Amino acid sequence: MGRFDGRVAVITGAARGIGFGTAQRFSEEGAAVAIVDLDESAAAEAAGKLPGTAVGIGADVSDKASVDAAIARVVEELGGIHVLVNNAGVTRDNLLFKMTEVDWDLVMGVHLKGAFLMTQAAQKHFVEQRYGKVVNTSSTSALGNRGQANYSAAKMGLQGFTRTLGIELGPFGINVNAVAPGFIATEMTDATAARLKMDVDEFRRLNAENNPVKRVGEPADIAAAVTFLASDEASYITGQTLYVDGGATLG
Ligand code: NAP
């Protein structure tokens, strides 16, 4: 018996990184999984690596028509939707005086508008069936991080979005929570190392030194928290943001 037997879980940005690690965990625990990512072939390839029923769907979470078509496909191909993980993300880091409007809009569009559009499309089904779980992906950067005014604002925005939906959707049997990862070893953080002209291993080592548990996080660390929040064990938890950062934000 898996915790997600008979459930359909949709994870955005899941062709790789944290999203793929999360998709693996849902699949191992019995869910049918929809991997939604920009590139349909990458999404389909990732879906093919999962142990259970899975589909890969190409969609841009910041585009309403694309999101509505993706959710319609999930329902048609997997028979419903019970869990939504808003994980898709991009960074366009720069100090404020150099940050372009394009980079501001892109980051807001993927993280904030993307979570809004995906959740709005999914909640119709959740409300009708009086059951649904939403987990949004915030970040420790929500608390402030040099060079990430756009990303930090979007990630803190997601925490407010989460709290508000906790209030609005709780009466309909829908839980809405967020995870806020610290440093997780993925292509996103490898790209940051490259931008800073640092060796990836050295960048990871330095980040590991920055938290009390003295290691960097892995996608599986986030997957464990996301699946807990999306499980029925967590049905009395809503509107919360769980920091999964090895204690990096403890001060
Ligand atoms: P990643 O390896 O860069 O993966 C992100 C995925 O999202 C990519 O497959 C990307 O596709 C996809 N994506 C980007 N824009 C999209 C869009 N408009 N629609 C659909 N999919 C889109 O990143 P990650 O490190 O796994 O991060 C996953 C989430 O965790 C993000 O929200 C990130 O902000 C958050 N997070 C990460 C860390 C960390 O340390 N890694 C820490 C805190 C929070 P393409 O490759 O085609 O662009």
What is the domain tally?
A: 1
In CATH, the topology is named Rossmann fold
What ligand molecules are bound, each kind once?
NADP nicotinamide-adenine-dinucleotide phosphate
Strand order of the largest sheet: 3-2-1-4-5-6-7
Based on Cα principal axes, name the global outline. globular
CATH architecture field: 3-Layer(aba) Sandwich
Note the gap between the termini: 40 Å
Order of helices and strands: EHEHEHEHEHEHHHE
Radius of gyration: 17 Å
Helix residue percentage: 40-55%
Oligomeric assembly: single chain
SSE arrangement:
Blueprint: E1 8-12, H1 17-28, E2 32-37, H2 40-48, E3 54-58, H3 64-78, E4 83-86, H4 101-129, E5 132-137, H5 149-169, E6 174-181, H6 187-195, H7 200-209, H8 219-229, E7 241-244
Parallel strand pairs: 1-2, 1-4, 2-3, 4-5, 5-6, 6-7
The chain binds NADP nicotinamide-adenine-dinucleotide phosphate.
Please give a structural write-up.
The protein has eight helices and seven strands, in the order βαβαβαβαβαβαααβ. It is of the alpha/beta class. The chain has a seven-stranded parallel β-sheet with strand order 3-2-1-4-5-6-7, sandwiched between helices. The N and C termini lie far apart (40 Å). Helices cover 46% and strands 15% of the residues. Strand 2, helix 2 and strand 3 form a beta-alpha-beta unit. The structure holds NADP nicotinamide-adenine-dinucleotide phosphate. NADP nicotinamide-adenine-dinucleotide phosphate binds at residues 12-13, 15-19, 37-39, 60-62, 87-90, 110, 114, 137, 139, 181, 183-184, 186-189.
